[in-house]
Design goal:
This protein is of the alpha/beta class. It folds into four domains: about 325 residues, Glycoside hydrolase, family 3, N-terminal domain (TIM Barrel); about 190 residues, Rossmann fold, CATH 3.40.50; about 170 residues, Trefoil (Acidic Fibroblast Growth Factor, subunit A); about 110 residues, Immunoglobulins (Immunoglobulin-like, Sandwich). Helix content is about 25%, strand content about 25%. The protein is built from 19 helices and 39 strands. Strands 16, 17, 18, 19, 20, 21, 22, 23, 24, 25, 26 and 27 form a twelve-stranded antiparallel β-sheet that branches. Strands 12-30-29-28-13-15 form a six-stranded mixed β-sheet, sandwiched between helices. Strand 20 and strand 21 form a beta hairpin. Helix 13 packs across helix 18.
């Protein structure tokens, strides 16, 4: 392509440049624009619009069929942890690091686009949702504001001519574009590619759409990705709100489908009979490209044009839209302000500093009885729990520059080794008078019958809900059930879309429960919990584990339905045929009790840290929802035993979602929690444990007492069947916005002033304790006078993290409340509006802290 042509002339308006290029393209070349690729080899143009994921750092680990080698990038805490900071400025810094590293990486690999599929702004309306880690919590205001900060950082919007942007002005160029996920009602993984979720206008406009609006209007998000599910009977990629609301009203410029969703509209939703119909309606709904098999999309586009389902004009418009997006990413500009970025700009000291700051700020102190924390560096400390010595990667995380576990963080903080025990049982298995040992079969280390002397010891990690890992310390490998039925010691780390290292261990006489939802495990009425006994093993795909020719094996994986173009559906239990052979009865023997070792270690220490938590690819991930919010039984038993052996025990809970930890709350004098994902996770936790930083994060989700507080997961009626702090008024374990500090604060002088149609609110916050610390001042609104619609019991309309208040220092928190923050959807009017009437504002340290308030008529 001639670089002296109109396409490369920045003095020409972008649309004119795009239309010029389209005028040079053939029909076949334009048809290819419906994929995310822009390939016009004849003109020397072979580009991609999208680069990949970036939820908490650039995902460049080459784990999703990418063609480049795995590349390390800076990794931040999960988005649910970023939300816990309640610190917009800090999260904008994290976004800036991600955006800079993304552009540097794309410069290195070449011809890839500058859109990143993030942030996820679906509300975490239910703590059992499998993708809670990717969201920013249960509140639309918090989600919208925090995600917008991340977007502003990553996009680095600018003018092509270099002039500075005015406040809130949109630029015509971006560094790394944000694609919001997933529009919308994407809060359940089970059957998401099949089911339709019923959403009322009230819930839609007051809750589910608000994060998208904030991120579009205030964050200036570049694009959006639609969800897999149907909404009120219509597949999300065919929802005309993409065009009418997101694009025309809120300013979103680009829209794509989720991976594989284009083909699934026919194959799973059965909404149309042909893919051509899907494509045509998707284009009319506002979809620009389909993240699916490019050849299938191209053929559907060709058929749609030949059948007259789309016109030449619509085809040209789609091609222009694709080129306009490439222009906004700077592909055809003669000068690229980011061209100098290279891999030396990835993983810098500054990036590591920001990662540590976010990790420290995301720590939430749930309990601190009698000032148990921070710990003294001179204390004789023991560390217990396998999550203390592990760093778990999530599906949309990158390969971090380094990983700091809690154990490493504590030992670095103290400058000495710390006595440690995983607390995990070591077990062996017997069949009659024979034992399972390791034997090489055709190059694989398999488990085969042997004598007691050669029995293989396996370390068992019980994740609850039927999921277990079995690790052989002698070999440094996890037991894996391969697709061909071979069971061997093959895995260094359980991490994949299908977790073949997860085994269900049921009591030998347990009964399988109906309708299993998770292919990683089979639901039984009784699992093997602790101690010895007869058990049966099962593995991924509903397969039984049995003995054949003296070797432990299972059936080869057999699908009940054909595999589609994408990964979707494979983690559903009913996708697999299961086994034809009954599972063998194995007698489990505990060789070394983890609880006994842990208690002996704890009894010798003056203070103990007990580390508990989750693995992001087990029991809760994309395609897998949790079946319960109950604490993992094995971990709960371990913590209880350690607390009995030494009551001076603090619990560190590393988790991406709430657990019902009422028993631990009653037992442990201190509980500190954080999310996974940060390369500095262990450093951030250790900093808080020993008082170098104040663990002043706040909960972005309600922590309920038990499953009984929650309606069915697929029930989207947040109001009629109350869920989230906005509508749930029952007792909870920890409320939304809750978190402690190493000091105390007082609130006074709440002042409210009108400013046009909005409000300016301020409140004084005073550090009344003896230590320097952070406070997250939160402002809430509730309706007092009668109304013709349902208002939330309370709703967040402002927050500010006040940093480093010295003892006795008073500081003023300022809140700007815009009319959109005050509006609700009024059914009779069919719009969101500020309904006239009397309201009460209150400020405090959580959604249930109403220390100062004021009445106002709006």
């Amino acid at each position: 392509m001639d670089r002296k042509s109109k396409l490369y002339d920045p003095s020409v308006p972008d649309r004119e440049r795009a239309e010029y290029l389209v005028s040079l393209m053939t029909r076949e070349e334009k048809l290819g624009c419906f994929t995310l690729r822009f390939n016009v080899e004849r003109l020397g143009l072979m580009l991609s619009v999208c680069a990949g994921e970036g939820a908490h750092g650039v995902q460049a680990r080459a784990g999703q069929r990418e063609t480049y080698p795995p590349t390390m990038t800076t990794s931040f805490t999960q988005p649910i942890g970023m939300a816990a900071t309640f610190d917009r400025a800090l999260i904008r810094e994290a976004g800036d690091v991600m955006g800079r590293e993304s552009r540097a990486f794309e410069n290195a690999v070449g011809r890839r686009g500058h859109l990143r599929l993030c942030p996820t702004v679906d509300l975490c309306r239910d703590p059992r949702w499998g993708r809670t880690e990717e969201g920013y919590g249960e509140d639309p205001y918090l989600t919208g504001k925090m995600a917008s900060a991340y977007i502003r950082g990553m996009q680095d919007e600018r003018r092509l001519d270099g002039r500075p942007l005015r406040p809130d002005e949109r630029g015509d160029r971006i560094r790394t574009g944000a694609v919001l996920k997933h529009f919308y009602a994407n809060n359940q993984e089970y059957r998401r590619t099949v089911d339709s979720f019923d959403v009322s206008d009230k819930v839609k406009y007051d809750c589910l759409l608000e994060p998208f609006r904030y991120c579009a209007e205030q964050g200036h998000a570049e694009g959006v990705m639609t969800s897999y599910n149907s909404i009120n009977g219509v597949p999300a990629m065919l929802n005309h709100e993409v065009r009418d609301l997101l694009k025309r009203k809120w300013g979103i410029r680009y829209a794509m489908t989720d991976g594989g969703d284009f083909l699934q509209t026919v194959e799973l939703h059965h909404y149309y009979k042909t893919h051509a119909e899907t494509l045509a309606e998707g284009v009319r709904a506002g979809i620009d490209a389909m993240l699916d098999a490019p050849d299938a999309v191209y053929q559907a586009a060709r058929e749609a044009l030949e059948r007259g389902l789309i016109s030449e004009e619509e085809l040209d418009r789609a091609a222009v839209g694709q080129i306009m997006e490439l222009l906004r990413q700077g592909f055809f500009d003669p000068e690229d302000p980011y061209a100098a970025l290279d891999m030396s700009d990835v993983g810098t000291k500054e990036a590591a500093r920001v990662s540590l700051k976010v990790s420290e700020a995301a720590n939430v102190l749930l309990k601190n009885e009698s000032g148990f924390l921070p710990l003294d560096r001179e204390d004789d400390i023991a560390l217990i729990g396998h999550t203390a010595d592990r760093w778990y990667m999530d599906w949309y995380g990158g390969k971090p520059m380094y990983r700091v576990t809690l154990r490493e963080g504590v030992e670095r903080e103290l400058g000495r080794p710390v006595p440690y025990d995983s607390g995990l049982d070591r077990v062996c298995f017997r069949v009659g008078d024979r034992y399972l040992g390791a034997r090489t079969v055709d190059g694989d280390v398999c488990l085969a019958l042997t004598d007691r002397q050669h029995a293989l010891e396996l370390e068992r990690t019980d994740w609850g809900e039927g999921s277990n890992f079995l690790y052989a310390p002698a070999y440094g490998k996890y037991l894996t059930a391969r697709e061909d039925g071979r069971i061997c010691l093959a895995s260094d780390e359980p991490f994949a879309w299908h977790v073949y290292e997860s085994f269900t261990i049921a009591a030998a006489d347990a009964k399988a429960l109906p309708e299993p939802r998770n292919a990683n495990c089979i639901a039984f009425d009784r699992y093997w919990e602790a101690g010895g006994g007869d058990v049966r093993l099962y593995c991924f795909g509903k397969r039984s584990v049995y003995i054949r020719d003296g070797v432990l094996v299972t059936d080869p994986l057999r699908r009940l339905r054909p595999q589609g173009a994408a990964k979707e559906g494979g983690n559903e239990a009913d996708a697999w045929a299961g086994s034809t052979v009954e599972a063998a009865v194995l007698t489990a023997q505990v060789v070394s009790s983890g609880a006994q070792r842990a208690c002996a270690l704890a009894a010798k220490a003056s203070k103990v840290i007990v580390s508990l938590g989750c693995d992001p690819v087990v029991n809760a991930k994309e395609e897998i929802d949790r079946g319960t919010i109950a604490m993992i039984p094995a971990q709960e038993r371990l913590a209880e035993a350690v607390c009995a052996a030494n009551p001076s025990a603090a619990v560190v809970l590393i988790t991406n979602y709430p657990y019902a930890i009422g028993r631990l709350d009653r037992l442990a004098p201190a509980i500190l929690t954080c999310a996974t994902g940060s390369q500095e996770m262990g450093s951030g936790l250790a900093s808080a444990l020993f008082g170098r930083s104040d663990p002043a994060g706040r909960l972005p989700m309600t922590w309920y007492r038990s499953d009984l507080d929650l309606p069915a997961l697929d029930d989207y009626d947040l109001i009629g069947h109350p869920r989230t702090y906005r509508y749930f008024d029952g007792p909870v374990l920890y409320p939304f916005g809750y978190g402690l500090s190493y000091t105390t604060f007082d609130y006074s002088r709440l002042c409210v002033e009108r400013d046009g149609e909005g409000l300016n609110v301020r409140v004084d916050v005073t550090n009344t304790g003896a230590r320097r610390g952070d406070e997250v001042a939160q402002l809430y609104l509730c309706r007092v006078s009668p109304s013709e619609t349902v208002h939330p019991l309370k709703r967040l309309i402002g927050f500010e993290r006040l940093h480093d208040l010295e003892p006795g220092e008073r500081r003023t928190a300022l809140f700007r409340v815009d009319p959109c923050d005050l509006a609700v959807y009024v059914e009779s009017q069919g719009v969101r509006m500020v309904e006239p009437g009397r309201y009460r504002l209150f400020a405090g340290g959580s959604s249930r802290d109403e220390r100062v308030d004021a009445l106002i008529d709006l």
